[in-house]
Amino acid sequence: MPRSPVSSLLRTAALATLLIALPVVHAADTPPAADAKAKSDLELPPLPDDKTIHQTIRLNGKPFNYDATVGTIKVRDAKGKVIGEVVYTAYTVPGSSPNRPVTFAFNGGPGASSVYLNLGAIGPRRVQFGAAGDTPSDSSELQDNPHTWLDMTDLVFIDPIGTGFSRALEEPAKAKADFYATEPDIKYLSRTVYDWLVKNGRLRSPKFLMGESYGGYRAPRLARELQTQLGVGIKGLFMVSPYLDPAAIGDDTALSPLPWMINLPSMAASHLEAQQRLTPEAMRSVEAYTRGQFATDLLAGRSDPGAITRLVGKVSELTGIDAVTVGRLDGRLDIQTFLRELHRNDRKIGSVYDANVTAYDPFPASAERKSGDPILNALIAPTTSAMVDFITREVGWKTDAQYKALSYEVNAAWDRGASQDKPVSDLRQAMANDPKMGVLIAHGYNDLSCPYFTSSLILDQMPAAMATPAKLAVYPGGHMFYSRDGSALSFKRDAQALFAK
């Protein structure tokens, strides 16, 4: 899911760091009797007890049975007071060995629930969203997901505090400090994983983590926290369209060539796909130019009279944007200009999550774009309706609380600290701690919110001993490449190789 629900923040570092993480402890740290005495700062009706139902889908032409559970895990402060409740949705195969793998999935934002990975990517059922032609009024009826991972692993989808039905039980200022910042986020979510394992007797299971977008920022940090602080080893990481290096993202005046370099291949891929010429071979040529002459000409600037001329001509050729427009920008084509100009003749605008998914521009005469993102605007209705219907009607977990597929409030409240190198550092350290831990980083070619070339450059800088366990896979599509059947199938096949280890 998108790493930021606010379009104006799409290219900013929506991250947070607290120098000292507030300690949180969970249900296992205090006697169960303390639950009855716990008092919230807010007067909120209690959430329902955990509820499990038995369901069946058809998978590979055969019935496939599983249990679906909606439940909660309490978050406590250092004094044992309940300060939050995390709601999760779990799909497990009854009667399985305690050694069956289990995968914990997180989405991004900050402020996104896990519904996108659940009902869009790897859960047993899905609702269509994120592809060309999807609209808010499309059916929210769930269908069996032929690409579910449930035949490979049990699945636990976790909604961070402030998303889904998960909630803080504190006043906003206290909740902001305890939940809406990078370090507390990692502390309480890693403890949530630990508590679910203890609660369900699954500490012997091979454990995997999946994070999409900002969830991809979380995943390596959660792995290291679990390894070194909670005593839980992680067999594998799946990072889906991850937001790994905020420091590489600059503005339109960036001196570093990195912001321009990481965006250009995805722009070129979008243009190639529109011409039905997108192939791995074509992209290797784009990447070679980006690492070579493009970077050289960017750094040369006006010290080389031919540099800008070369930039303008080649960038225009690769992206399909006319040379006059690219020339006004000295060859430095920014994302918003690209998305506006790519489809201007059709009076449409492209999505930052997949440049070839468009919507009509409601203000085509405006000098600047004034509308929201085509994918972001289209997916809230079907995902919210489908998830609430599933939880409240099918599972019977009844609540009158509002479900937040995307929380603008959480995103706005997030503490955007200065430390931004943590995910790559923690990825290196987690891999060094456990050489047997596999890593699959998956992207869509057309994604301009978290471009795949960032991950490519990061992996190229990894120590040689760590490069082998990590794989980068790039599929047709955008940020939610799994909305395309072919890409979802390829993603599952690549995941099977990691589970097989």
TrEMBL record:
Key word Cell membrane present in the record? no
Read off the PROSITE patterns from this record. Answer: CARBOXYPEPT_SER_SER (PS00131)
Q: Which UniProt keywords apply?
A: Carboxypeptidase, Glycoprotein, Hydrolase, Protease, Signal
Q: What SUPFAM superfamilies does the annotation carry?
A: alpha/beta-Hydrolases
Ranges in coiled-coil conformation: none
Name the source's superkingdom.
Answer: Bacteria
Signal peptide location: 1-27
Keyword Protein transport part of the UniProt annotation: no
Q: Which InterPro entries match?
A: AB_hydrolase_fold (IPR029058), Peptidase_S10 (IPR001563), Ser_caboxypep_ser_AS (IPR018202)
Q: Which PANTHER family does the protein's record reference?
A: RETINOID-INDUCIBLE SERINE CARBOXYPEPTIDASE (PTHR11802:SF3), SERINE PROTEASE FAMILY S10 SERINE CARBOXYPEPTIDASE (PTHR11802)
What is this protein's name? Peptidase S10
Which species does this protein come from?
Duganella dendranthematis
